[in-house]
Amino acid sequence: MVKNALLCKPGGEDVIEEYKAEKSLTHRTRRKLVNLLASHMTESHGRMPSRKHKEKYALGIITLFPSLKDPFSPKGYLNDQQLNQDFLLLFGAETASKMLEKWDTTFRSKVINEAKHLTQSIELSQLLKAAEKLTETDDTTGRKRTKISPSDAVDKMLHFHKSCCSLDEHLRRRDGRQPYILTVGRTRNRIDTFYIVVDKQLIPCQSTSSLGAFDELFKSHYVFNLSYDEYLGQVFTFVQTTVYNIDVATTNESPRVREFRAKVFN
């Protein structure tokens, strides 16, 4: 299946020939391979392929290109980077990297500046001070665009858990299937580990930064086919269309999201 998919795409035969010659693929060719197969998969199975389809393509890749097999994974392709890999298969490498590549240079200062023009409160002031010092709360400024308080928005997106306490106890107390970030450490200023929590399941983040954890949180909605939290919808829609450029023409955006995007780019 994978071989036929590559042969019907421009550049796919070059990927196969490179592997035959080198018994491996360069980083650039691997990205081409993923982009070609992601395109084929969405054309064949829609924008949100099932996990069964994604695993079939993953198995096809390591069957056709054995040197790409992960020796530390029971199946050869499932590991702690699976969430990012699944998103990459859906949208390609260029889209998958947009948040980490563009947030600090293109969006961060403009989001902070926009938040300064909102109705000020003690909570918002604290978030802004943190955002100007760290990337820890970059995304929380966007949360002010919902109709709930900043503290409630934070509670829906981010939780801190002391490393000395039981994670199982935390999971038992939480209800709902909406994904959120769980940070674990001795104090809020010394985070050791980031997790994405989905339906009481812990997924260790590949990233060790708050921005990277938010990147994985956003991607989890697509990988697990989940809708956005109703109170955080404008935040995630802004990130989806403006940062990742996903389904811009077909997504129903609020006027405030479109207005904010215009401010960011003008």
If you had to describe this structure to a student in words, what would you say it looks like?
The chain folds into two domains: 2-79, no CATH class; 98-265, no CATH class. The chain has a four-stranded mixed β-sheet. It is 57% helix and 10% strand. It is globular and about 60 Å long. The protein is α+β, with helices and mostly antiparallel strands and 266 residues long. The chain has helices at residues 2-7, 12-22, 27-45, 51-64, 82-91, 93-96, 98-116, 122-133, 138-143, 150-157, 167-173, 210-223, 233-243, 255-265; strands at residues 158-162, 180-187, 190-198, 201-204.
Number of helices: 14
Q: Spatial order of the strands in the main sheet?
A: 1-2-3-4
SS-based class: alpha+beta
The radius of gyration is 20 Å
Number of separate structural domains:
2
Mean pLDDT: 81
Spatial gap, N to C terminus: 46 Å
User: What share of the residues does DSSP label as strand, in percent?
Assistant: 5-15%
Major pleated sheet? 4 strands, mixed
